[in-house]
Every structure is written in structure tokens, then in C-alpha cells.
Amino acid sequence: MLSYTEKIREIAGRLLASGAVEMVIGFRQGTIPMMNEPHFAKTPAEVGKLVWDSHCGINLANYLTDRKEKIGIVAKGCDSRNIVTHIIENKIKREQLVVIGVPCRGMVDKRKIAMKCPGEVTAVIETETGITAKGNGFSQSFEKKDVLQHNCSLCIHRNPVIHDELVAEPVDEQKGVDRYADVRAVEAMSPEQRWKYFEDLLSPCVRCYACRNACPLCYCPTCFVDESRPQWVGKGQEPSDVRTFHFLRAYHCAGRCTDCGSCERACPVGINMRVFTKKLEKDSLDLFGWEAGLSLEVRPPLDVYRPNDPNDFIK
Amino acid sequence: MEHMGIEPGRLQFSWISSAESTKFVNVATQVTQSIKALGPNTQFIKKLAEVA
């Protein structure tokens, strides 16, 4: 996985030099460890900053919305599924894109590492299977599989579903993963327990909307929470407003969410709001046999009418 | 909504054509009865700020 960097730079340089694309979107080292940020390379000279390691968790499809130029984009499995969703939803054209596919082995959850370290992590060194975090007076090693992002540990689409270039041979997909254990745990609760569960889950939320901004699906020119005429939802910390924001945002992602984990990763207080989107993801799968972003040919289930659509909930 | 802890039956959906007046009456009666049986809603309620 670490050898990807050179290959990405080579492909990006070639695409930019030949004029095949005007910009390559990838990752560069962040200003602090484990926080890679998007990099927009517009000249071959700028490709030297592109990197690839286990901290490239941001979903780059987010930066494609309504772009007009030709773009090369570095895409993991989840990114590629969101690119497909973007194309289906007419937010970008397939012809505009050169997808540089990256077979992914999962991204690392910086919180899991930070929590197990005695002080602030100032540097990380990565090998193929392990991560070593260093700080003032300590150095701690981890197996990568122990510190994966939760969504990555459950991922069953690690290879890009569309790509024009591939930086390496496809990796083996994970088999026999129980993707929805957490959703079933909530489903097994009584209504009171569920209410309490989500109350506790959302209590630290400060309504910063980082989850929304990091999400490639949230591209509305004006989000419903920002509108004031009409004002759909209160803008403060009132628990029912906070909850309304979260469950409505999840609904807007129904049948579109790829569980890329950007929302959870972006959250400054570490709320796992994926339990909302995952319920809808599970429903899409159970009711419509649908997983988002796997094909450019099939319209999403909420987009089309089929005579056998489930409708038992309507009286 | 029920996944989030709203009591089952609090939220109901129906599809009634403008020509189905009888169905409308029936559904409205049923919904009101079942909701009354559940009692007053306790969720999604905002308290007004207490003013001294």
C-alpha cells in the first residue's frame, strides 16, 4: 500500500503533462499526523506532494460536485462508489473524469490510536501491516487491523468499482463480514431504550455540521438546516432540533450512502452518526436488494417505481 | 422514526384518493383512536426557556 504513492504521482504527472486532465485530486500530508488533506494538483510540478498511506480517509468525491473541467481523481472503493452516485445524480459527467483507482486495505482511526497513547502523537511511521505512533517520551506500535476505522473493518467493496487507471492489483475483498450487528443491536431494544440510546449518542453534538460538509452526498446549494424561510428546524442545541438534524440528514442519504465513514471521521466530538445512515443502508439492502454506487446502469430504488416495491406501511 | 425510539403506531402513513371519502373518514377515525390510546406525546417536545 505504501508503494502506491510513487505510482499515484507517476499517473498524475502523466495525466497533467499530456493535458488529459486539468487537475488531479488526491491527498497530501496534513499539518498534523494522521490528518491527510485533499490536494489539488494543477501542474506536473505539484504532483510531488501527493501521498498515499492509511490516513486518506476523506471522501474525495466531495470535491467533484458541479465541476466543469476534466479531473483526475484518486479513488478508494468507497470514493469510487460515491463518484458513481455523483454521475448518476448528474453532479459530474463520466467523460470529465479519469479515475485513478486505489485498491484499499482500510483507513486508520486516529482516535483509536490517540486513545491508546499516553500523550500527544507528533509523528506516525507506517509499514505494510503496522503503525508506530511517537510523541514526547513514548513510541507505541499497533497492528493496523486493530486500529482500522469501524466502517473500514466492515468494508466489502475495497476495490474501486470504476477506474481508468489502477495503482496496484486489486486486493482481496473481505468475506463473511457481519455489516449490521450494530443496527440489529438497536433494533432489539425497546422504544424507550432506543430513544435513550440516541439521546446519549447525540448529547455531545455541537451542530458544527462537519459531518454534512465532509459528506459527498450533501451537496445542496442551501442545506435544510441553513434555510430560514421557511425555517425547517431550530438552529440551537435543543435536543429535539439536534435529533431532527441528524435523522433528516440520514434520510437524505437513504439509498445513496456508501458508509465511507467521512461523517464520523470529521466529527470533532466523535459521534458515530453512522448508526443512522447504516439503518437506512440496511433497509435499502433488505427491502430493495440495493447497495449504493455499484453500477452506472441501474437507477437507485428511490428513483424508480417497481410494481413489487414494498408498501406494507401504507394503510 | 421507530428505529429512533418513537413509539410504534405514533407515526402512520396512508394513501387516500380525493374520491375515497369513506376511506378518509375510516382512516382518520382509526388514527385518532389509536393515537389517543397511546396518550400524550412525550418526544420531540421543546420546553420554552424559563424566564425569571
List the helices and strands and how they pair.
The complex is a heterodimer of chains A (315) and B (52).
Chain A: H1 4-18, E1 23-28, E2 37-41, E3 50-51, E4 71-75, H2 77-88, E5 97-101, H3 110-116, E6 121-126, E7 130-135, E8 138-143, H4 150-153, E9 165-166, H5 181-187, H6 191-202, H7 210-214, H8 239-252, H9 262-266, H10 274-288
Parallel strand pairs in A: 1-4, 4-5, 5-9
Antiparallel strand pairs in A: 1-2, 1-3, 6-7, 7-8
Chain B: H1 21-38
In short:
The model of chain A has no long low-confidence stretch (mean pLDDT about 90). In chain A, the strands form two sheets. In chain A, strands 1, 2, 3, 4, 5 and 9 form a six-stranded mixed beta sheet that branches.
Jot down its keywords.
heterodimer, A: 315 residues, Rossmann fold, 2 domains, six-stranded mixed sheet, 30% helix, 14% strand, B: 52 residues, mainly alpha, 0% strand
Description:
The complex is a heterodimer of chains A (315) and B (52). In chain A, strand 6 (121-126) and strand 7 form a beta hairpin. Chain A has two domains: 1-106 and 156-169, Rossmann fold; 179-305, no CATH class. Chain A has helices at 4-18, 77-88, 110-116, 150-153, 181-187, 191-202, 210-214, 239-252, 262-266, 274-288; strands at 23-28, 37-41, 50-51, 71-75, 97-101, 121-126, 130-135, 138-143, 165-166. Chain A contains ten helices and nine strands. In chain A, strands 1, 2, 3, 4, 5 and 9 form a six-stranded mixed beta sheet that branches. In chain A, strands 6-7-8 form a three-stranded antiparallel beta sheet, with no helix packed on it. With 315 residues, chain A is α/β, with parallel strands linked by helices. The longest helix of chain A has 15 residues, at 4-18. Chain B is mainly alpha-helical and 52 residues long. Chain B has one domain (2-38). Helices cover 35% and strands 0% of the residues of chain B. Chain B contains one helix and no strands. Chain B has one helix at residues 21-38. The model of chain B has no long low-confidence stretch (mean pLDDT 87).
